[in-house]
Automatic annotation (TrEMBL), chain A:
UniProt-recorded name of the protein: F-box domain-containing protein
SUPFAM superfamilies in the cross-refs: F-box domain (SSF81383)
GO cellular component: SCF ubiquitin ligase complex
PANTHER family referenced in this protein's UniProt entry, alphabetically: F-BOX PROTEIN SNE
Pfam families: F-box-like
InterPro entries: F-box-like_dom_sf, F-box_dom, SNE/GID2
Domain F-box residue range list: 39-79
Domain of life: Eukaryota
Automatic annotation (TrEMBL), chain B:
Stretch list, region Disordered: 453-501
Lineage: Eukaryota, Viridiplantae, Streptophyta, Embryophyta, Tracheophyta
Biased composition regions of type Low complexity, renumbered to the chain: 462-493
Motif (VHIID): 190-194
Sequence motif: LXXLL motif, positions: 288-292
Segments of this protein annotated with the region VHIID: 159-224
InterPro entries documented for this protein: TF_GRAS
Pfam families with a match to the protein in the record: GRAS (PF03514)
Family membership: Belongs to the GRAS family.
Official protein name in the record: DELLA protein DWARF8
Region (Leucine repeat II (LRII)) location: 238-270
Sequence segments annotated as region (SAW): 371-446
PANTHER family: OSJNBA0084A10.13 PROTEIN-RELATED
Keyword annotations: Transcription, Transcription regulation
Length: 180, 501
């Protein structure tokens, strides 16, 4: 901190500085709140991890609505398993297909979340490592199988009744891993 | 502070006793070992135990006897297990020699041994199926079917559970799909022929991958071969409708056709209705080995492979069990099967949750291998080396599976199971094994350029005839005559129809 001129009494100068910063932050009197703008809230929530994002849905109606946006979950998913070049590279086509299969939020809940948990049990999992152990294409393939199972019995008519089993192809992700 | 018995390894080789060298990261045993018993090792819990607490443990504690008991019981069980295996093998030897009396006596001994073992895990779990199968073989007349013929629904149900419980079928599907995807690169009209469609679980992933491929999806046709449905149901059509639904939702132009046939050699190329200009992939997951049965000195495998070659496929994906269960000698077969299925059951064990249905699926195979002979035996597993020879003789060349397939397989297996499974690559084929023992192998093939027929006609009948002449084989000329030759002919399920989107 360079001081030109004769040193003023230090305490007074500090107090002035603090007051000035505070005035700037408060924008001259009004208070900014992340809830004022849903898009800003969306940007913030998109940086959360899966569990926190799911919990965020319980905070208030606004947070519930924003945290259900698929774009938010898309960022989360792609952050973990997206192409190495970054989330943006995944592209529009992927978004369409994922939407058709049920959306990124569901992809995370059914597939990515349990898979990452499972891999994470082996130790702290950095993002780079996650991409080696799990890819977006593999997750989508597993997701599509689950989606297919949920279609089950469609068009089977009477034959389908009593034969329907709940979709189970992703259960293997939830089984406890023997890490002995 | 408590003490905790740690996981005992299943490997009998380590039954020589656990000593402190097995526990490198844990504290050394206290200075006062119990006299005489070499099971005197104390077990320690979490490695975070502070050395300062060691003096507290030096005093004898009540759980020590329980631990020693447990150790002794485990050792007994392992000895009993080994004895049981020897008994089963002697029994099988007696069966091969035709000595019914001796075989029954040894089987009775084996059953007694079995009672001493827990059949919940380890060698007991697989041995119980082998003893059952041996009983069936000895005490049922060979002409009557030991089990009622498998209803298609039961088979599908068990298959589904086997699919979920262990990674083998998933490995098969994903690896085959990767090879098919790569083979279809740049093609606009593609046709997949699935030798055993079951519930069609393999195809959603392919449909999704084609939807996302750069350049957009091709027009996809799937022809699913499966057993005829009981009256009142049309399973093939149901599967087709579901796949069509999925394809429609991801905007892939799709069409499905079902072919009902009891065995693959009933299927003739014209039934598959390959259109000119489309790329064909043939997918066989655990199907080829069933064709090795010797029907009147003629194995259907050659006819089927000729049929496949005549389609001029871009790729033929083959997944088979990596085992030699087709040896002519019963004892050899029995021994191989015992060790193979022990490894498979071991891997099921280690997956944590019990899956009796998956076991039932495997039990059927075991029963078939042990009880049936001649044309009745369908499970004729052969190792990859022999499949290579056969497929090469049929005029197909191997297509290496590539690094993406290996990477994907490793990822999948890493997700699906904890430790123990491993994917290895050898000569362009992938094998999935348990603790170093390969259990399933996946490979890909294509028609050799020399065999490919050029100038195919639009009319499938014509193309079929020309293919028969070029392959030069004595395979059935299916243009017309032989499809009527079989009384219970396969018949194409027209009702499955083409579902155009």
């Amino acid at each position: 901190m360079c001081m030109g001129g004769p040193p003023a009494p230090p305490r007074q100068e500090q107090q002035d500085a603090v007051l000035e910063v505070r005035v700037q932050l408060l924008g001259g009197g009004s208070v900014h709140n992340i809830n004022d703008n849903a898009d800003i809230l969306s940007e913030i929530l998109a940086r959360l991890d899966g569990r926190s994002l799911a919990a965020a849905a319980g905070v208030c109606r606004l947070w519930a609505a924003v945290s259900r946006r698929d774009a938010v979950w898309e960022e989360l998913c792609l952050r973990h398993v997206g192409p190495a070049s970054g989330p943006a590279a995944a592209g529009h086509a992927t978004r369409t297909v994922v939407a058709a299969l049920g959306g990124y939020r569901r992809l995370y809940r059914l597939c990515l979340g349990p898979a990452l948990d499972r891999l994470g049990r082996a130790g702290a999992l950095a993002h780079a490592q996650a991409r080696e152990r799990l890819s977006l294409s593999l997750s989508l393939s597993l997701f599509s199988i689950d989606c297919y199972e949920r279609l089950g019995g469609a068009g089977g008519g009477g034959a389908g009744a009593g034969r329907q089993q709940p979709p189970s192809s992703l259960l293997f992700l939830c089984k406890p891993v023997d890490v002995s | 502070m408590g003490t905790f018995p740690f996981q005992w390894p299943m490997d009998p080789a380590s039954s020589a006793g656990i000593d402190a060298s097995f526990l490198p990261s844990l504290l050394p045993p206290p200075a006062a070992p119990a006299a005489g018993s070499d099971d005197s090792v104390s077990y320690y819990g979490a490695p975070q135990m502070h050395p300062a607490s060691l003096p507290d443990l030096a005093a004898p504690f009540p759980s020590r006897d329980a631990a020693a008991d447990l150790a002794m019981r485990r050792a007994e069980e392992e000895v009993a297990g080994i004895r049981l295996v020897h008994l089963l093998m002697s029994c099988a030897g007696a069966v091969e020699a035709g000595d019914h009396a001796l075989a029954s006596a040894q089987l009775a001994d084996a059953n007694a041994s079995l009672a001493a073992l827990s059949t919940a895990s380890g060698i007991g779990r697989v041995a119980v199926h082998f003893t059952d199968a041996l009983s069936r073989r000895l005490f049922f007349s060979p002409t009557s079917t030991p089990q009622p013929p498998a209803a298609a629904t039961d088979a599908a149900f068990l298959y589904h559970h086997f699919y979920e419980a262990c990674p083998y079928l998933k490995f098969a599907h994903f690896t085959a799909n990767q090879a098919i995807l790569e083979a279809f690169h740049g093609c606009d009209a593609v046709h997949v022929v699935d030798f055993s469609i079951m519930q069609g679980l393999q195809w959603p992933a392919l449909i999704q991958a084609l939807a996302l491929r750069p350049g957009g999806p091709p027009f996809l046709r799937i022809t699913g071969i499966g057993p005829p449905s009981p009256p009142g149901r049309d399973d093939l059509r149901d599967v087709g409708l579901r796949l069509a639904d999925l394809a429609r939702s991801v905007r892939v132009r799709f069409s499905f056709r079902g072919v009902a046939a009891n065995t693959l050699d009933e299927v003739q190329p014209w039934m598959l209705q390959v259109s000119p200009g489309e790329a064909v992939a043939v997918n066989s997951v655990l199907q080829l080995h069933r064709l090795l049965a010797d029907h009147h000195h003629h194995a259907p495998i050659d006819a089927v492979l000729d049929c496949v070659a005549s389609l001029n496929p871009k790729i033929l994906t083959v997944v088979e069990q990596e085992a030699d269960h087709n040896k002519p000698g019963f004892l050899d077969r029995f021994t191989e099967a015992l060790f193979y299925y022990s490894a498979v059951f071991d891997s099921l064990d280690a997956s944590g949750t019990a899956s009796p249905m998956a076991e039932a699926y495997l039990q059927r195979e075991i029963c078939d291998i042990v009880c049936n002979d001649g044309p009745a035996r369908a499970e004729r597993h052969e190792p990859l080396s022999r499949w290579r020879d056969r497929l090469a003789r049929a005029g197909l060349t191997a297509v290496p599976l590539g690094p993406s397939a290996l990477r994907q397989a490793r990822m999948l297996v890493g997700l699906a199971s904890g430790e123990g499974h491993s994917v290895e690559e050898a000569d362009g084929c992938l094998t999935l094994g348990w603790h170093g023992r390969p259990l399933f192998s996946a490979s890909a093939w294509q028609a050799s350029p020399a065999v490919a027929v050029d100038g195919e006609e639009d009319n499938p009948h014509n193309s079929n005839t020309s293919n028969v002449s070029s392959s030069g084989g004595d395979s059935n000329n299916s243009a017309g005559s032989s499809s009527n030759g079989k009384s219970r002919s396969s018949g194409v399920v027209g009702a499955a129809g083409n579902m155009f989107l």
